[in-house]
């Protein structure tokens, strides 16, 4: 752990003072982390990983290893106890991550479609991609009540025109969302880490010019979700829950199927509801960033009444009962349909 932190800091040519300023962790503590006289807390690990650009999973493993060694030391039965613990952990992991047969079936179908898609990559067209991204902006905004039609959304984004009878907010929502799509594609191409800074940047784009004082900032007040019985956490809990959110991502990103990982990241973010406005759009963009990063395509949830109601109902069930199966199935079905449509377009 101590070597890992010091080496990462030196590779970035950073002083201990700079790491302290960017993480909010006392400078003396960081020095002690590097000498091994103190250990970071679990909450401090994501901050150190982000600033020092260390894979959080690597950092967590090193931290847990030292914690285990400190606890058991040279106890006589240490190795035997660790073997028993390993078997128990494996059993728990297996039971927790068992996927229902209905969900596994659609994931298998999705993987077959993706395999087929990979053989058609050379036929990818910028114009097709541009049209599908425009549809995604239109549908994602329609879910949230934006009344611009698909054609009007095109005129606003690609022609720079103003549509009579539509509010300035609706125009900005279209422009901002399209720019946010460009941003998540940029992150995907750079293979950037999904962390707090990037999620705040996505949200900043969504609310830019609409609520500039709230763009890219966690809420400081309690909120309610219109039409839902679910009550989001109090504002003082948001920062901690967001830390846990990124820890969960780093812990599960290499073990969950990418479609399930994307759906979970969506549901978990919108359940925390960390922002005054723009939670849905930001959560869907994070979901699609995960999908794009794994070679899938944008899962475009339609904004018509039936799809919107199914989306909200499965999401609320996940939030109020902790039963996520219906929501995961819904997102998987959307991704499957998006893949089928894309393949149908490019293979003609």
TrEMBL record:
Domain HTH cro/C1-type: residue ranges: 5-59
Matches recorded under PROSITE patterns: FIDO, HTH_CROC1
Family annotation (Pfam families): Fic, HTH_3
Site (Important for autoinhibition of adenylyltransferase activity): residue numbering on this chain: 144
InterPro entries found in the cross-reference section: Cro/C1-type_HTH (IPR001387), Fido (IPR003812), Fido-like_dom_sf (IPR036597), Fido_containing (IPR040198), Lambda_DNA-bd_dom_sf (IPR010982)
Domain called Fido: residue spans: 194-333
Positions with a binding annotation for ATP: 277-284, 311-312
Active site: 273
Entry keyword Nucleotide-binding: yes
Superkingdom assignment: Bacteria
Name of this protein: Helix-turn-helix domain-containing protein
Species of the source: Flavobacterium microcysteis
